[in-house]
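Dear colleague,

As promised, here are the two records you asked about, laid out in our usual form so they can be pasted straight into your sheet.

NAME FIELD: protein one
SEQUENCE, THEN STRUCTURE:
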Amino acid sequence: KELEKLGLRDDVDLHVYEVPVEYQTVQRLIPALWKKHSPQLVVHVGVSGMATTVTLEKCGHNVGYKGLDNCRFCPGSQCCVEGGPECIDSIIDMDTVCKRVSALGLDVAVTISKDAGRYLCDFTYYTSLYQSRGRSAFVHVPPLGKPYSAEQLGKALQAIIEEMLELLEHSEDKINCQHEH
């Protein structure tokens, strides 16, 4: 919500949605949002009670979902997409994003993870990565006040997303440049 107040640069349309902690809703909503907006990038943000840093997730996992959601439901297959790859990496270079944002001197620690936890965050991330062929990102944040304020988290997310967009735009410039020759 703080990021919605802060916004992003003028040439970016920001759409903010709250996604319920429900497997079946995620399976319907994420593809519908991709279809509706055809975004350049989707960045999911989830709160982790275990997080003490802002954590950039590198990949989403397809199997291992055993925890019940807010509707007391769990997929019988314990997976996101039957027959899908075990793991899908984001096309965003999270190591570079982490280094660049850390160098900005914000008073927020940013780290990297390869495991978003096999619950709704990971399930949402995988679903979005599958839908977008990797054009998604997931950021875990600690609960408000533990240790960061809403304003600190909002500014960190703003910087992270702008770095992600910058990386995405430069990689596409290289791709377009190679096609012209």
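NAME FIELD: protein two
SEQUENCE, THEN STRUCTURE:
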Amino acid sequence: FQYLKRFDQGCNLDAFSYEEHSVEGSPAECLQQLLLHCGITDPSWAELRNFTWFLNVQLRDCEASVFCNPDFVQDTLKGF
């Protein structure tokens, strides 16, 4: 949710990193973001769950990768 919210606001996601147990927004805002970005017009709860699970795994791997660390790659992969 935090990544999707910042993406919609046009923030630089390269400089953002999720902090465990941090809470932002309301459950209604979260659901609205998920519905907006999941890519399915009328998703079931299972489809939303699969979307959030997949997105979470991808973002966790991205944050853990040295190749996605802006301090390491500096400006060599800008916008990647």
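A couple of things worth noting about protein two: The mean pLDDT is 87. The CA atoms of residues 2 and 24 lie 7 Å apart.

Best,
R.
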